[in-house]
Structure formats: C-alpha cells, structure tokens
Amino acid sequence: MNNSMVIGQYVPGDSVVHHLDPRTKISVIFFFVIIVFFANSMLSYGLLTVFSLGAVFMTKIPFSYIAKGLKPIWFIIIFTFLLHVFMTKEGEVVFELFSYPIYSGALVQGVSISLRFFLLILVTSLLTLTTTPIAITDAVEDMLHVLKKVRFPVHELALMMSISLRFIPTLMQEAEKISKAQASRGVDFRTGPLKERIQAIVPLLVPLFVSAFKRAEELAMAMEARGYQGGEGRTKLRELKLEKKDYVTLCVFAFVLIGVFITRN
Amino acid sequence: MEISFDNVSYIYQPGTPFEHRALHQLTFTIPSQSFVAVIGHTGSGKSTLIQHLNGLLTPTSGVARIGPYVLQAGEKNKDLKSLREQVGVVFQYPEHQLFEETIKKDIAFGPANFEVRQEEIERRIYAAIDAVGIQSDMLERSPFDLSGGQMRRVAIAGVLAMEPRVLVLDEPTAGLDPKGQQEIMDMFYNLHQEKQLTTVLVTHSMEDALAYADYIIVMDQGELYKEGTPLEIFLQPQALNKVGLEVPEIISLSSTLEKEYGITIDYKKQTLEELAEMVAHQLKGRATHE
C-alpha cells in the first residue's frame, strides 16, 4: 500500500473520537467547515485551532503520522501564504524583503488564510482517520433518509457507495500484485520517457479491469444467492444510536460555534 | 546462480501505525543449481522473501546476493532489469497477469521487454509452449478464451520465454486439479534438470517439497525456523507441528511402520506402489524366518 496515502485511510483505534456516532462526526465537520470561513479575529481563529488540535489529541493517533500524511498539502499551504504575503497591499509597510515592501495586512492575511486551509484539511481528514468507510456510508444513508419521500434511491446509493469503498483496498492490492508480476517480466513503470511509461500502464490496466468485472459479477451472483432484493424492509446489523458522548460533543461544538460568532470582529 | 541472504530483515511501512515486520535477520545460502522448497504457515514471510530474489523489494537491513547482483538497504541497484531477466518469477495465480490480444503476444511480452531479437523470441515462444503443453495452433487465440488451467500454462510459458537462470515459483499449482498439478510440477522439475536452473519453490504441499526439493527452508513469523534436506526436516514431526505444518503422508506412514512393526524402509522417492511392495517383501521375509 502507498505510504503517503493518509487522507482517506482509516487508522483503527479505541479513542472517544473513534467511538462517536458517525453522524455526530459528519455534522460537526460539516458545520466546522462553514464556520472556519466566518472566523476573522485572532481569538476566533485561536478557538478553532484549540478545538481541532484537541480533537486530534483525543484520537490518540500520533500527530507526526497525521502531519506526514498532510505532506502534499503543505506545498499548497505555503504557496497560498507566499501569494498573500506578496500580493496584498494593506496596512503599513513592516519591512522590506530585497527592496520589496511587505505590508502588515499581508502577513495577517497570509497567516489567517493558510491557517484556515490547514484547519479545514486537518479536521476533515480526522473523519476518515477515525471512522470506517462502512460507518460513514451508514451515517450518510441515515442522514439522507428524508430524501426517500421524494423517491430518491437512498439505500441503493448507499450500497453503491459502500461497495466501491469496500473494493478500493482490494483493487489497490490487486494493482500492486499485477504491477509486481509485470515488473518481473521487465516492465519499467518508474523510469524512461513519458511515452513508454504511459504504454507500461496497459499491461497493468487490462488485467485490473478483467478482474474487477469478474469480481463484480461474482458479487452480484453471491448477493442474489443470499436473497438480496433491494432495500425494502431490510433491517440493519448495526443500528446507529446517539449516546452521551455524542451529546457532549455536540454541546462542546455548539459553544465553539457561539464563541466564534462572539469573538469575530 | 548462488543465492545468499545475510541478516536480511524487511519491514513494511516503517514508522506508521501499520508497521509490520515481515522478515527478521534471515541468513541462508542456496547453492547454484539446487532445488529449494520454502515452506511455512500463511504469513510466515515466504512471499516477502521471494520478492527479494528479483529486486521487487530491497532489504530494510542486511544484504541479499543473487549471483553477481547485490541488494542492500539504502542502495539503488542499477542492474535491476538484468537481474529480472535472470530471475523468472511465477507468482500465485499467474493467469491474472495476462493482458495481450493473443497468446503469442503475451508470451513474447517478457523477452521483448528485455530486448531479445525477434527470431530468438519466435524460437523461445515455441520452446515455451512445448514445455507447458499448449498446441501451436492456439497461439493466435485470445488468452481470455482459455480455461483456467490453460491460462495458467500460458502465463507460465510467458515467464519461461524469458529463459531465466533462476526460477522462482510461488505456489504454482494452487487451484489446479490433481492431474494438472502433477503435470506442471513434473514440467518444472524437468526444466530444472535439463537447463540446470536454480529453483526456489514456495509451497503448502509437503508432498511436493519432499518429492522435488533437495533442500528445504522452513519459515516461521519472518524467521528461519529450520533448514535441511527433506528427510532431515520431515523426520521432526513435533517441530513441524509446532509451526502449523504437517509431515508428508508417506513419511508418517513409514515412521509408524517402523515404530509399530519394526519395518525399516529408506525413503528414496518411492511411489506408493513401490512402498507397498517393499513392505510386503519385508513382511514375507519375516514370515519365512519364523
């Protein structure tokens, strides 16, 4: 498996965050994403930062591991920061960098935009780090249940989602296996001219598609053999239930929400 | 080619919560032209081991030597391509790697990657299909129209066409019917002798290990548990049971015979019939004495 793929990767654990109802996590993150854009004062940013870092701490996943996974994001964050620092011309000139004036407003803008970006990525990746794909799908199905009234196929959508999520690791494993087999037959995926490297993908993709289709057919057959016929009247193995810790989390988050609105300028 | 491992360890995804130690300080030597079986329970590190043999993996620490090629932690080997030409690997379910439009093109894929001349490729294709028992009139058909067993043969032919000096086999007969298993294993054994290959066979079949290997490496949890000739290994049933392995039927039968009836039979790759005859012979001999 790819080492740098932290975003979207579930890390098993036994923390409070892991055990929260996925619906709680999804709603908190949904509203967090919105209020991040409302923050505009030092205090409101501080409040959001404390909340996010506190959440990271409570997952018991080593911060170094998460930071390493955010590596591809760092580039964008730093790029955004530099862009703002050099392009904004508000406030007083603080100092000159190679005779290029840097304004105080630019620094504030740069820091706050990159911080905003960082918090967004950090908190949203917490969802997938602490929640199994199946739990996320269950929560989405439950939360979209209202749409059933307008004949929206919620169950089918959720099933499609969970099947695709379920097969991502399987396909990745398969891809790795096939690429190793083809590498043993002399295919070079890593070096050489771009044209040759693109051609090298064919011996990987064809077997991958063949096995994916075969798998899909087998799965459909196995589901039918076990009497699957759509969502009507189907009961759930894992019932989602809000517990005390969910209410506590929601309350804490509500305070953060109110706090941000009080402290913003 | 001689293969030697010196203190080889391999760790998957080091420094993450998914860190997993697959090989631990492995040291062994496989002499050139020998037939070695690697046995061990699922997850004992067999597959990780064989991926070191053609440089798909590089040791996390330690040194692996395959003939003149050296694989060492932190060092990029520039001759990987020529190493892979010398070491042919037949992976588990090799039919999953077929992709070309015709059987012929698929078999030619390996040698073509190693820039073998066209006439030579042509010769190798016929030699390879002859070895695995595929008729030459099938060459222009799509590999996806074949039965599972035939697909396996075509995929194996694709590896053989590279004409490697070392053949690495990862459970090459898994999922085949008994007759097919026998045919494929005999084919590998003949090639091994005919072309004086060095062969490494990963297998769950103790019978195959006994019948074909002249040396056995037993793995357990990433470590070398035991090594020796098949007879040395299989005459230690307790030690094998401890790591979840069984002794071949024929060995356990002959050791029971020895224990219960005092009949001693040297195992020299006899078939079941020959063994039965030897037992009958000894019993008769005893009857005339009394």
TrEMBL record, chain A:
It comes from the Bacteria. The keyword Transport applies. It is found in: Cell membrane. Forms a stable energy-coupling factor (ECF) transporter complex composed of 2 membrane-embedded substrate-binding proteins (S component), 2 ATP-binding proteins (A component) and 2 transmembrane proteins (T component). The keyword Membrane applies. The gene is ecfT. The chain crosses the membrane at residues 28-57, 69-87, 107-129, 247-263. Its main location: membrane. It is a multi-pass membrane protein. One of its GO terms (molecular function) is transmembrane transporter activity. GO terms for cellular component: plasma membrane. It comes from Pontibacillus litoralis JSM 072002. Signal peptide: none annotated. Transmembrane (T) component of an energy-coupling factor (ECF) ABC-transporter complex. Unlike classic ABC transporters this ECF transporter provides the energy necessary to transport a number of different substrates. Belongs to the energy-coupling factor EcfT family. InterPro entries: ABC/ECF_trnsptr_transmembrane (IPR003339), EcfT (IPR024919). Keywords: Cell membrane, Membrane, Transmembrane, Transmembrane helix, Transport. This is Energy-coupling factor transporter transmembrane protein EcfT.
From TrEMBL, chain B:
It is an enzyme of class 7 (translocase). One of its GO terms (cellular component) is ATP-binding cassette (ABC) transporter complex. It is found in: Cell membrane. GO terms for molecular function: ATP binding; ATP hydrolysis activity; ATPase-coupled transmembrane transporter activity; cobalt ion transmembrane transporter activity. Keywords: ATP-binding, Cell membrane, Membrane, Nucleotide-binding, Translocase, Transport. Its EC number is 7.-.-.-. It holds the Pfam family ABC_tran. It is a peripheral membrane protein. Residues 3-246 form the ABC transporter domain. SMART domains: AAA. It comes from the Bacteria. Forms a stable energy-coupling factor (ECF) transporter complex composed of 2 membrane-embedded substrate-binding proteins (S component), 2 ATP-binding proteins (A component) and 2 transmembrane proteins (T component). Belongs to the ABC transporter superfamily. Energy-coupling factor EcfA family. ATP-binding (A) component of a common energy-coupling factor (ECF) ABC-transporter complex. This is Energy-coupling factor transporter ATP-binding protein EcfA2. It comes from Pontibacillus litoralis JSM 072002.
